[in-house]
């Protein structure tokens, strides 16, 4: 039986509705799962019910995380946050991690997981980590923007059997101080953490790039989603 995968919602504030880029759903479906978008509700009963029903969880990309979550104040107006989503995802992580169910984080999802575990972020990469490496690529979004080096012996390196990987890249923030217990699985050419895992957990992986954008043509992206669904 195909597992039910809870996908954390994305929000369009201007038009006041929840949304979901179809690539997330298509990648999960192709890997053998059934995706379902979760509601933007962070009350304890709703979070626990969603955590009980779903068998795996995908934390998606989206807006910046409020710096107050890791003890900082915004460095500039470039930091655009949506506190209700922060609240939902932190609450969901707390419940799901206690259950031991598989978790995959993508882009913002990697950042949320890092902050939940006590880490910090670069709030604005252009000013806090200037680099010639492209972290804000333009369309087409399924084409690689830069390379990452996979950590030798990491679960991701063992899965892909590669030392380097060409990845997509669309993000304004990134992991700065690594969260407690997390281990690095990949780094970018300019030294940013690009993938992490929680070794003492059954399956908690997170990547800064967007494998959902390239899963149709990239074998490494397909393999990442298959690993997630197989863990479920």
Helix/strand class: alpha/beta
What's the SSE pattern? EEEHEHEHEHEHEHEEEEEHH
Q: What percent strand?
A: 15-25%
CATH architecture heading: 3-Layer(aba) Sandwich
First-to-last CA distance: 11 Å
Task: Tell me the major beta sheet.
Answer: 9 strands, mixed
Spatially, the strands of the biggest sheet line up as 4-1-5-6-13-12-11-8-9
Spatial shape: globular
CATH fold naming:
Rossmann fold
**Helix content range of the residues, please?**
25-40%
Q: Radius of gyration, rounded?
A: 16 Å
What would your notes on this structure say?
The protein has eight helices and 13 strands. A hairpin with a 6-residue loop joins strand 12 (193-197) and strand 13. The mean pLDDT is 94. It has 232 residues and is of the alpha/beta class.
Brief digest:
With 232 residues, the chain is an alpha/beta fold.
Offer a few descriptive terms.
single chain, 232 residues, alpha/beta, Rossmann fold, nine-stranded mixed beta sheet
How does the SSE layout of this entry go?
Blueprint lengths: L3 E4 L2 E3 L4 E3 L2 H10 L2 E4 L6 H10 L2 E4 L23 H17 L3 E4 L1 H9 L4 E2 L2 H4 L17 E5 L4 H6 L3 E4 L6 E2 L7 E6 L4 E5 L6 E4 L3 H4 L4 H13 L1
Parallel strand pairs: 1-4, 1-5, 5-6, 6-13
Antiparallel strand pairs: 2-3, 7-10, 8-9, 8-11, 11-12, 12-13
Helix pairs in contact: 1-8, 2-3
